[in-house]
Amino acid sequence: MTLRTPPLAERHEESGARFTDFGGWEMPVAFDSIREEHAAVRETVGRFDVSHMGQVTVSGPDAAQLTQRLTTNDVTALDPGEAQYSAITDADGVILDDTVVYRLPERETEDYLFVPNAGHDVQMTDRWESHREAWGLTATVTDRTEEYAMLAVQGPDARALLAAESDVALADLSRFEIAGGTVAGVEALVARTGYTGEQGFEVLCPWDAAETVWTALDCQPCGLGARDTLRLEMGFLLSGQDFHPEENPRTPYAAGIGWTVELDTEFVGRDALEGVDEEGVDEKLVGLELVERGVPRHGYEVTTPDGDHLGTVTSGTMSPTLGTPIALAYLPTAYAAPDRSVRVVVRGEPKKARTRATPFLDR
Amino acid sequence: MSFDVPADCRYRESHEWVRTTDGIARVGITDFAQDELGDVVFVELPAVGDELATGDDFGIVESIKAVSDIYAPVGGTVTAVNERLRDEPELVNEDPFGEGWLLELDLADGAELEDLLSPADYRDQIE
Question: What is the pTM of this model?
Fold first, then answer.
């Protein structure tokens, strides 16, 4: 299968990046070292090419209603220029994807934009279109993933860096707000969103202007490796790993994003989730910190100190900021409280670990 | 990209190096190997006194993104392991042929060194 490539692929190759296949995209995993890139974002600023993230716009008279009925959060609560984190669930309340829904500023021609995970854009566009037909709604759904690049600057110095290149009043832009303007002279949308836990911005610009914007936002380039360690320190979910509709079907409540479920709205999966909300969940996504040396990884077993099976690690790494091994795993709810003693089986060796509240990093 | 391939070492195809001084063989992973792995965050090594046969997997070098077994390029008894790597695994990245060495062996059979790759042959393999 031919991999999709971001608009800056050649530029990344010239700068010596290593690449990986992620969601059907050939994306840079590291430019320099994951440790350096991670530290840049925590301490100063780093830039990411996140053009592999999907971009689907929805407009027309029923755009809000269509999106409301396909996402768990309350789309009608959004004013122009506001965004919300949300989940997309099936009729059983199982997470198909997690996303950010933006209500675009009024000057834009489209009304809403949502950002599916890498490789999910076609499937989600189909989902919006097929439900639009089934429900007899009037809305235009456009997959513009390969027309618009998405670049991110993240870190304590992100605002100053971007402000020097943009006419958007960044100081007035609150978290989860989006505004139109220019960046490096290019017409763009600037959102105060990101997936690192730091103050940061995401810039959406036409595909063929990506290089101009990327060049102007000159700072440490960061790949998917640092993106993964940064998001895991915050306890943020990774699609396909921390949830997967077939291999690891989970509800938003089990995955720790129950706060994105607005049961006062009507959406696919609402009734199932209302039942889950009333009955509670058997298992929850729990943070773990290894007390002994070792690196927890996806698929490693979690047991009691006596060796009884409890669950499986969905994401794990050596935290570059904390210097300790951290992980996420679905465990019985009794283990959701911090400081429960468990074991993570690292290549056959049970290593001492304890449960921890997430985020691992106080931000 | 150009990798360091010191002339005073012999090499295994699986990217370990061995350098002998007075019958003691010091073993590590190559510059190429550490670059492929990326940031090393954990190294697991055998105990002093362990007997290794040629080709035994004797430990693990783990980076943020990958886990890699390491193999004995020659057989022998472990006489020392690099204890600094417990707290400073990044030495494997910073100085793979120096401070980032892994262990030392009392060689079982010095002739085994002849079966390893020369620096020129190893360079051919990685380039």
Answer: 0.94
